[in-house]
Amino acid sequence: MASPITSEIDFKADGKQTGYLRLPHSVHRSAYGWIPIPLVQIKNGDGPTILLMAGNHGDEYEGQVAVTRLVRELQPEQIRGRVLLLPMANYPAAQAGHRTSPIDGGNLNRSFPGDPNGTITQIIADYIETVLMRMADYAIDLHSGGSSLHYVPTVLYGDREDNSEMEQVLRMMRAFAAPFALHFRRSSEIVSSAAARRQRTIAVTVEMGGSGTVTPTALQVTQQGIERVMAEFGILTESNLPNLGTPGATRILRLTGQHNYLYARHEGLFEPAAEIGEDIEEGQVAGWIHHPETPWEAPDEKFFPISGTLLCKRIPGRVQRGDCLYQIGQDDTTE
User: Fold this and answer.
1) Domain tally for the chain?
2) First vs last C-alpha separation in the chain
3) Is residue 324 one of the residues assigned to a domain?
4) Is residue 335 part of a domain?
5) Same-domain pairing of 145 and 86
6) Residue 66 placed within a domain
7) For 63-77, 234-248, 259-273, which range has the lowest pLDDT when averaged over its residues?
8) Which of 162, 151, 142 is nearest to 204 (CA)?
9) Is residue 334 in a domain?
10) pTM beyond 0.85
11) Tens digits of per-residue pLDDT, 308-325?
12) What is the pLDDT of residue 333?
C-alpha cells in the first residue's frame, strides 16, 4: 500500500524548497485536515543526498534547533547534491514537547519499519524509511536525553554485514567527532538505525545533551558534527562556521548487557553521586534514593555494578521502580 502522506516538495528540483509532508488526519475539529510535518530540501545539481532528522522524540531539542538553524543558514551554492532537513519527524510529539505522540502514544523510534495503513506514528515511520531513507545516501538521526536523561555528547553506531558499508559508518562516526561513541553489535529492528540499514543508508544516531532544554555545549558539538559529516562526504563545499577546529579523539565505548544500566528499585528522591563523562569503578557509590514520606527511614544506597564511563544520568529527582538512573559504557576493545 502506498503511503497516504504527500509532499509539497519537488524532490527533483534544484534550489531551496520549504513545505510540508501532508498526513491526512480527520478529527472532530477538522474533518478534512492534515498534519503538517515540516520538510526542507536544499539541492544543487547531482551528488549525494543526506537526511538530517530531529524530533524523532519530541522532547529532545538540540537536534531540532540545529536542523532549524541549518534550514535558515544553508544555501544551495554551499552544497553539492541534496540535503533533506526534517526538524520535527514525529510532529505531534515535537509540537507537544513529549517523547511520544499525544495522538496515538506512538514512540517513533520504536515504530520502524512502520505501516502505511497503521497509526499516525506508524505512517510517519513508514514514510521516513521507504521514501526519505530510500532517497538518502547518508543520514543522521539527532537525539538527546529528552526530559528524563542527560547525555554526554555521544555518537551511536551499529555493525553492518557489508564491510564497505561498515567502513563508511565508521568514517561518519569519526567525522562527527563527538567526545564519545557507543558501538552496538546490532540495533533493534524497530529503530531508525535499522531502517537505515535496511535501505543501505550510511547512518549514525547521536545523543546530545537533554534535560528537557538546549545545552549550549551540546548544541555546538551537534552543529559542528553535522557540518563535519557533510564536508567529509563532499556535500558541504562551504561552511558557515568560521572555524571547525581540530576535533579531539573520539573514545569508543560499548554495552554488553543489563549491567550497563543502573535502575531504581524503590520510589523516592534520587541524589546522584557522580556526573556524566566520569569514569567510575565497580562497587562505587552511585547515589541514594531518599524517602521524604518516611524521613526516619535510611535512604537506599545505590552502587555501580561495573566499572566504566557514565554516558547519561537521570534528570528528574523523583524516581519510581524501573527508572533508569545511569547508563554505563565500557571501553570497546574490538576497534
Assistant:
1) 2
2) 42
3) yes
4) no
5) yes
6) yes
7) 234-248
8) 142
9) no
10) yes
11) 999 999 999 999 999 999
12) 83
Q: What is the pLDDT of residues 92-147, one digit of tens each?
A: 999 999 999 999 999 999 999 999 999 999 999 999 999 999 999 999 999 999 99
CB atoms inside a 10 Å sphere around CB 166: 15
Identify whether residues 130 and 150 lie together within a single domain: yes
Give CA–CA dist 68/61, Å, rounded.
10
Enclosing domain of residue 306: 260-328
CATH of the domain at 271: 2.40.50.100
Span 226-234, average pLDDT: 97
Percent of the chain with pLDDT over 90: 94
